[in-house]
């Protein structure tokens, strides 16, 4: 399965997605609005003051030459080139407003303001936020700027298509897999009001997926699911177990739904039997890793994440399920509520599952995707970060700019960076600034060049030492390559993750090494000139 974002809409009328939709509406309302003028209209793009990253985004906007509230005129006489320029200005602002924490941390604020791209997800969110505003304006038939708004809408659609074409992947299908159960599920859905322009297919190397059955334009609805066939907490409220569960303090709707599904999947007369019949007996996620796979993960971030997740789930199970089975065996039969069945249900609920269509899994690291979804995305994952355990209280951050002052620090593969020059090295600026402050220096302070270079060398040597230790803890990853084809799925997945973490650490060590050579060369020049 792929974590990429394809350009189509999924209209799912369930409560969880309504909450997401409401959040997006809040975001769009805070981002854009329009006002009519004598010459046309003005689009107002504003950074919401309630944004938890407000100060950092404000600082980045200022670095790019923008205010937190920008007025962008849209005149009725604008030509195509002018519309394109107007959209580019709007897009530069919308990209920054749409940034999440990881994207903002690695935003490389000291690089030229010509930087236009943060991530595929950010680009699509920024374009979609502007498109939603334009569509809203076009829905007002009294609006006088219909022609220029349609031109702007077309330009946005063109840019969205560009993103889709640039980041699409060739997909091959396994025609030998019939997908009969899945097709029966789709037919059942259509009989109950589902509308779809997708077809289930088995994708080589990924498993079940969906392909489009006809050309879809930007903004077209690919799948519409009526409320009546959505599995939601409403079903729990109508079940016999709700009278028991509602008396448990602090129980969440997600946990209630999980317990409901454990029993419902064995109900032969269930309305959702078609759905449960299509589910695998085993999900093959990190939660199901065996002993050999766990051992292969020694020294990785994924090992800690899996162990913490399983410990949390086991605690949740032990505190809840045995007591329910003991006190209400007629409602919670012990044979249906084993630890294995509970783990199966836990693996079920995180899963959201021509040309292949993709859903975005969100801003998730490969460790999270492996633990809860059982796959590693193809290509680079910009959210593959290694968090660093740093005591920030030891450093005075009073003089630090909002973009340098972070409470959490992290690194990722330095090949994703656009700036490997001296003082940058492909490493995140917030981390470098923090390490400089720890030595009483900042990059832009009035410090003589020689002293600054020596501090830079200390910073890189410290990082080099830290990540050399991390690499040693991973062990010899090359030794794991032997006979990899004959290994179980979980060991294969564990080793693939280990390779990725090793690649990230190796890139940081290489960047430190290259940076040290630059600094030592520059320092020798300074010494010779003295």
N-to-C SSE string, H for helix and E for strand: EHEEHEHHHHHEEEEHHHHHHHEHEEHHH
**Apparent shape:** globular
What is the CA-based Rg, rounded?
Answer: 27 Å
Q: Proportion of β residues?
A: 5-15%
Helix fraction bin = 40-55%
Structural class by sheet pairing and helices: mainly alpha
> What's the rounded overall pLDDT mean?
81
Give unreliable regions as ranges. 1-30, 110-114, 351-359
Biggest sheet architecture: 3 strands, mixed
Number of helices: 18
In whole angstroms, how far apart are the ends? Answer: 60 Å
Can you count the beta strands? 11
- Reading side by side through the largest sheet, how are the strands ordered? 1-8-5
Query: How many structural domains can be distinguished in the coordinates?
Result: 4
InterPro entries: Rubisco_LSMT_subst-bd (IPR015353), Rubisco_LSMT_subst-bd_sf (IPR036464), SET_dom_sf (IPR046341), SETD3_SETD6_MTase (IPR050600)
GO biological process, one term: methylation
Pfam families: Rubis-subs-bind
Keywords: Methyltransferase, S-adenosyl-L-methionine, Transferase
């Amino acid at each position: 399965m792929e974590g990429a974002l394809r350009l189509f809409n999924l209209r799912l009328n369930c409560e969880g997605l309504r909450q997401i939709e409401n959040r997006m509406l809040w975001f769009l309302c805070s981002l854009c609005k329009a006002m009519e003028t004598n010459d046309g209209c003005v689009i107002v793009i504003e950074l919401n003051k309630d944004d938890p990253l407000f100060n950092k985004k404000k600082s980045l906007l200022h670095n790019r030459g923008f205010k937190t509230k920008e007025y962008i005129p849209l005149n009725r006489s604008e030509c195509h080139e002018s519309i394109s320029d107007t959209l580019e200005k709007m897009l530069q602002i919308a990209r920054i407003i749409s940034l999440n924490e990881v994207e903002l941390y690695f935003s490389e604020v000291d690089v030229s303001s010509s930087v236009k791209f943060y991530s595929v997800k950010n680009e699509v969110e920024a374009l979609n936020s502007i498109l939603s505003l334009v569509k809203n304006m076009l829905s007002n038939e009294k609006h006088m700027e219909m022609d220029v708004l349609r031109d702007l809408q077309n330009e946005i659609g063109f840019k969205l298509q560009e993103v889709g074409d640039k980041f699409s992947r060739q997909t091959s299908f396994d025609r030998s897999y019939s997908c009969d159960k899945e097709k029966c599920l789709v037919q059942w859905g259509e009989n109950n009001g589902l509308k779809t322009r997708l077809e289930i297919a088995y994708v080589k190397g990924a498993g079940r997926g969906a392909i489009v059955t006809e050309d879809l334009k930007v903004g077209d609805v690919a799948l519409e699911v009526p409320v009546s066939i959505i599995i939601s907490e409403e079903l729990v409220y109508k079940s016999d177990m709700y009278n028991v569960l509602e008396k448990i303090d602090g129980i969440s709707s997600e946990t209630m739904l999980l317990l409901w599904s454990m029993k419902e999947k064995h109900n032969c007369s269930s309305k959702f039997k078609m759905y449960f019949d299509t589910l695998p007996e085993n999900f093959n996620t990190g939660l199901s890793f065996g002993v050999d796979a766990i051992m292969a993960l020694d020294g990785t971030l994924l090992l800690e994440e899996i162990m913490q997740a399983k410990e949390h789930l086991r605690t949740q199970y032990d505190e809840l399920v045995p007591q329910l089975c003991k006190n209400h065996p007629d409602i919670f039969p012990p044979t249906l509520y084993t630890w294995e069945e509970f783990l199966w249900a836990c693996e079920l609920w995180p899963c959201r599952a021509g040309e292949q269509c993709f859903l975005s899994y969100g801003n998730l690291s490969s460790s999270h995707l492996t633990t809860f979804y059982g796959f590693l995305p193809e290509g680079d994952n910009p959210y593959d970060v290694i968090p660093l355990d740093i005591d920030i209280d030891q450093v005075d951050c009073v003089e630090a700019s909002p973009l340098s002052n972070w409470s959490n620090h992290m690194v990722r593969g330095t090949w994703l960076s656009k700036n490997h020059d001296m003082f940058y090295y492909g490493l995140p600026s917030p981390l470098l600034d923090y390490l400089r402050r720890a030595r009483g220096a900042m990059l832009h302070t009035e410090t003589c060049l020689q002293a600054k270079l020596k501090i830079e060398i200390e910073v890189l040597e410290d990082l080099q030492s830290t990540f050399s230790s991390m690499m040693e803890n991973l062990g010899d990853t090359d030794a794991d390559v032997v006979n990899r084809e004959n290994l179980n799925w979980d060991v294969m997945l564990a080793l693939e993750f280990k390779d990725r973490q090793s690649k990230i650490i190796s890139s940081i060590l290489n960047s430190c090494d290259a940076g040290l050579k630059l600094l030592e060369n520059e320092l020798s020049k300074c010494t010779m000139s003295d």
